[in-house]
Amino acid sequence: MKILKMSFKGYRNLKENEIEFSPEINFVFGKNAQGKTNLMEAIWMFTGARSFRGTKDVDLVNFNCDFAKIDGKFFFENRNHEITIIFNGGKRKAIFDDVAKNYPTNIIGRFKTVLFSPVHLSLVKDGPDFRRRFLDAAICQLKPTYTKTISKYNQVLKQRNSFLKTFDNTSQNLQLLDVWDDKLSELGAKIIKERIEYLKVFKNKVFSFYSDISGGKEKIEVKYIFSVNKNINLGLSVDDIKKLMFSKLEKTRETDIKTRSTSCGPHKDDLEILINEKTAKNFGSQGQQRSAVLAFKLAEAMILEEFSGEPPVILLDDVMSELDDFRKKYLLKGLGGRQVFITSCDKSDLKKLKIGKLFTIENGEVNVKKDF
Ligand SMILES: Nc1ncnc2c1ncn2[C@@H]1O[C@H](COP(=O)(O)OP(=O)(O)OP(=O)(O)O)[C@@H](O)[C@H]1O
Ligand SMILES: [Mg+2]
Fold this sequence. Notes:
- By secondary structure, the chain is of the alpha/beta class.
- The protein has two domains: about 1-110 and about 310-370, P-loop containing nucleotide triphosphate hydrolases (Rossmann fold, 3-Layer(aba) Sandwich), CATH 3.40.50.300; about 120-310, Glutathione S-transferase Yfyf (Class Pi), Chain A, domain 2 (Up-down Bundle), CATH 1.20.1050.90.
- It has helices at about 35-45, 120-125, 130-140, 145-165, 170-215, 240-250, 255-260, 280-285, 285-310, 325-335; strands at about 1-10, 15-20, 25-30, 65-75, 80-90, 90-95, 100, 115, 220-225, 270-275, 280, 315, 340-345, 355-360, 365-370.
- The strands form three sheets. The protein has a six-stranded antiparallel beta sheet, covered by helices on one side.
- The site of adenosine-5'-triphosphate has 16 residues, from helix 1.
């Protein structure tokens, strides 16, 4: 998986340009607020996902432009590809190999990247929402249809909640609620099952990466916390999970009517991260938390690689300077053979760079400084 070339116009603060990347390491050096993350974000956009900073499409367009256009030339699945994305008036249009897609999300699952940025510390430090989104985004890159299941689930959830807002206890309404619960359980069970399957592989990989990073001294555990039933047997079928969720919704119905919200389902689930049997969020040191995120990201990359048969492009936004020398070396060694982008404000991170390209970025203007 490689991005060979890229051109952009009107994207955030980036000045119109066409750049050619190294198939190995691309080091992007620039001071704060010059556009490093904007460039990483633009590359990430080719995966078909939303901005990893949660920015609305309309805000991706330069303040002084009417639209933005990014175009990338790629090599994957044994051939060259081209993806163009146009952001215009809050809408986005995607063209894949000269074919305009009805839905821009249709390109999800083609160009694959794994991004690691300081934002990801939230995986350990913040609330469950970030962990659920991480899990779902990772699965989406493997199974593009999962995106549809998630958005249908969210739609039904929203409808059930607004139905609860006007709910009164007539038998007709109770019957209608049964219909919503049935739909919600069906979609919810599909999501839970996919997450269980992903985690079976993921948690073992996280364990072994973390053990390597900590020099074999510490161990990490990742557990799925179910809101439907504390102890779901991980071998259950989608149908069995659906039945469990439906009956839990029946049990929590009274509370749901009172609070006018839905108290169980995949939107309430979480991941628990334990380092040496203690919750990483409350007891982990900064270094342990960072290592946990690193292990998460490496595991995500490895699964993607095994699944698609080719290594994803790795985007390391502003993370090198936060790592000590041991972890820096570990990271670069472990990533050998893959196309990597590293952004930094600190040129000393460059010392070990012997292959690839060096770019500088100043006020959105990208320049090639060195081609090794
Ligand atoms: N739609 C937009 N139009 C024009 N400029 C924008 C837009 N969105 C963001 N910017 C500007 O882009 C600039 C650079 O942002 P970016 O996050 O890429 O910086 P950075 O080089 O990663 O900095 P840091 O080292 O602090 O992370 C910011 O000054 C921001 O105001
Ligand atoms: Mg940045």
